[in-house]
Specification:
alpha+beta, 2 domains, eight-stranded mixed beta sheet, three-stranded antiparallel beta sheet
Length: about 290
């Protein structure tokens, strides 16, 4: 890392690297404290620009060193160890270490009631799910196994059905249930929306057949339209997504295409604990 003499910005020649987790990504730089599984250490950097979307970043302790030395210079740089990471690892570090005014722990005493029982629960609720696609009336609800469903559907004995994971309507529209994860800033936690996405007939057939197959994770990503209308957002129906198939007995992960839509922004860049509280108040029967 070298220093631009006209500013306090640490510069680097933009390069690509092969990350063992994320594949080929842009090379970035963070202080060693932000590497790996660090949480809540602070995330300091200059403002990103189109030319430098991932400016070098450092934790709060390293910010104290930088400030005490009057900026990045020979003295401060010798006291801070920098490590090279990929841009995806950088974003993970940003989300996990960005400071927020409200902490997730501040919700530990929040009491709430859901719509399924009369019990009071305490603490953050980080998972809300929908039992059917927006377009389903609930017709054909069944507990049949995916293989049984496939056989009956293939033989024409079943055209409309709904399970916890799959839905077909009139043998024309096909949906699967998956998860949209919203990383929570300053934590290693995620807020999860359990939603439905439409898929092609061919992909629907593949997922039914491979429901219990250990090799299903090798399936390529699949295109999907979001088929759940979430409250407290502009209309979420038909947002573009990619389906990433998980191992057996784990629901697929939906990756929302990055756009200006608030849900896409939260999915890619994270939400604050205050936003978690806001969603809880909108979704739960009672909170106090």
């Amino acid at each position: 890392m070298t220093r631009d003499e006209s500013s306090d910005t640490l510069l680097r020649v933009t390069r690509k690297l092969q990350c063992t987790t994320h594949g080929e990504r842009e090379e970035t730089c963070v202080c060693s404290h932000l590497d790996r599984d660090a949480v809540s250490l602070g995330f300091n950097r200059d403002d990103p620009t189109p030319e430098v979307p991932f400016p070098d970043a450092w934790c709060n302790d390293c910010e104290i060193i930088r400030t005490s030395a009057g900026g990045w210079n020979e003295e401060s740089e010798t006291m801070v160890k920098a490590v090279i990471v990929c841009s995806a690892c950088y974003e993970r570090a940003r989300i996990r270490n960005t400071s927020t005014s409200m902490k997730l722990d501040d919700l530990n005493d929040l009491r709430w009631k859901c719509f399924t029982c009369e019990e009071w629960h305490t603490g953050p609720c980080l998972d809300f799910a929908y039992s059917q696609p927006y377009y389903s009336s609930g017709e054909g609800r069944t507990s049949a196994s995916p293989l049984e469903l496939f056989r009956n559907w293939r033989d024409g004995r079943l055209t409309t059905f709904l399970t916890e994971d799959y839905c077909a309507i009139d043998n024309t529209d096909f949906f699967i249930r998956g998860i949209i994860s919203l990383p929570i800033l300053g934590t290693a936690e995620t807020f999860c929306w359990g939603v439905w996405g439409s898929v092609s007939r061919q992909n629907f057939e593949t997922l039914l057949l491979k429901h219990d197959d250990e090799n299903r994770m090798d399936l390529p990503s699949m295109f999907s339209w979001l088929s759940t209308r979430l409250p407290d957002y502009p209309d979420t129906l038909n947002l573009k997504m990619q389906v990433h198939v998980s191992r057996p007995f784990k629901r697929p992960q939906f990756e929302v295409e990055l756009t200006a839509h608030p849900l896409a922004q939260e999915h890619h860049f994270g939400i604050t604990p205050a936003r978690v509280k806001e969603i809880m108040r909108a979704m739960l029967r009672e909170t106090e």
